[in-house]
Amino acid sequence: MSTPFRAKSTLEQWRIFQAVVDYGGYAQAASQLNKSQSSLNHAVSKLQNLLGIQLLEVKGRKAHLTPMGEVMLRRSKLLSQNIQDLETLAASLEQGWEPKLAVAVEIVQPQAPVIKALKAFLPDSRGTRVEVIDTVVSGADDAIHEGEFDLVITAQLPQGVLGEPLNSVTLVPVVHRNHPLAKMPQPVSIDEVLQHVQLVIKDTGKNPKQDRGWLRAEQRWTFSSFKQVVDVLKQGLGFAWLPMHIAQSYFEEESLVELNIQGGAAKSLTTYLVVPRPELLGPAGQHFSKLLLQHCKAYR
Questions:
Q1: Would strands 240-243 and 164-176 be described as parallel, antiparallel, or unpaired?
Q2: How far apart are CA 297 and CA 166, in angstroms?
Q3: Which has more confidence, 61 or 11?
Q4: Strand runs (DSSP E) across 177-284, as ranges?
């Protein structure tokens, strides 16, 4: 068994070394740290002796880094930041700040406001790890009921579940501009549409509900994301229902077109933020949920 590593230097010695560099000399650092100049000299001298390399050299009244000192300064600052992060995390945990936040997001939810909320959350995250998982249709139900997620964004509230409305989403039927359905006189009948392959997203629920979702053709190809569906659509294959916020850019470049179906085929949804266990939601989850509501409201 190898002998456990024992550090020769101390964190305090490294912090003093950094202060001497940052403040430009021993006297200036001593004033800032409220320590005697001799104690700082002794600490850095001892550190250099322990390491066997020279970190600083004094020229006039200023302490200058040696080339080896520059390398060690960069690494030591990383060490100090890691220690600070550990101490901040410990204080946060003591206050009930969660080390991990699990968020389930129904894939029809616009991503832009969610990303903005994540960006706003980062400076205040205190080391909290955020896990964002996509769900589809009844997968959101599972996320709400099984207790594995702190926050859930769903496009349909299960019976007896309350949620804060986030965004309105319109799903529209889409085909490639050269698809046979796009070439037919518009509007086309539903019976005509059903003769073609429908591209759908796989329900991520453990017990998928066949009565939920969009119009289903007899022949269906199933994928795991809208990106895959769009890639297939752009090859001129099949039709699909896409959220307007995803389809819009493809309409503008004229690679895909909205299909005009008799009787109307657009489907409107509202996404909701659900807190499955409000009594267990800690400060991090509460803060992030407020940011989600704020940025989703601004996105409308």
A1: antiparallel
A2: 6
A3: 11
A4: 198-201, 220-223, 240-243, 256-258, 267-274
State which amino acid sits at residue 92: S
| Contact between 152 and 272 (Cβ < 8 Å) | no
β-strands 267-274, 56-59: how paired? unpaired
Quick: pLDDT tens for 97-129.
888 999 999 999 999 999 999 999 999 888 889
Q: Which residue has the tokens 């796009």?
A: 182
Run of H or E residues at 298:
helix 283-299
Does 88 score more than 60 pLDDT? Answer: yes
| Residue closest to 244 by CA, chosen among 216, 209, 268 | 268
Contact at 8 Å (CB) between 239 and 259? yes
State the pLDDT at residue 60.
Answer: 74
Q: Assign 137 a pLDDT band (cuts: 50, 70, 90).
A: confident
Task: Identify whether 243 is preceded by a cis peptide bond (ω within 30 of 0).
Answer: no
Query: Residues 39-43: what's their mean pLDDT?
Result: 90
Average pLDDT over residues 234-254: 95
The Cα-based distances of 154 to 40, 248, 277, 296 in angstroms read 58, 22, 15, 14
Measured CA to CA, the distance from residue 22 to residue 12 in angstroms comes to 15
CA distance 300 to 293: 11
Helix (H) or strand (E) holding 73: helix 67-94
CA distances, 116 to each of 43, 153, 294 (Å) = 46, 15, 10
The residues pairing with 132 across neighbouring beta strands, listed in sequence order, are 103
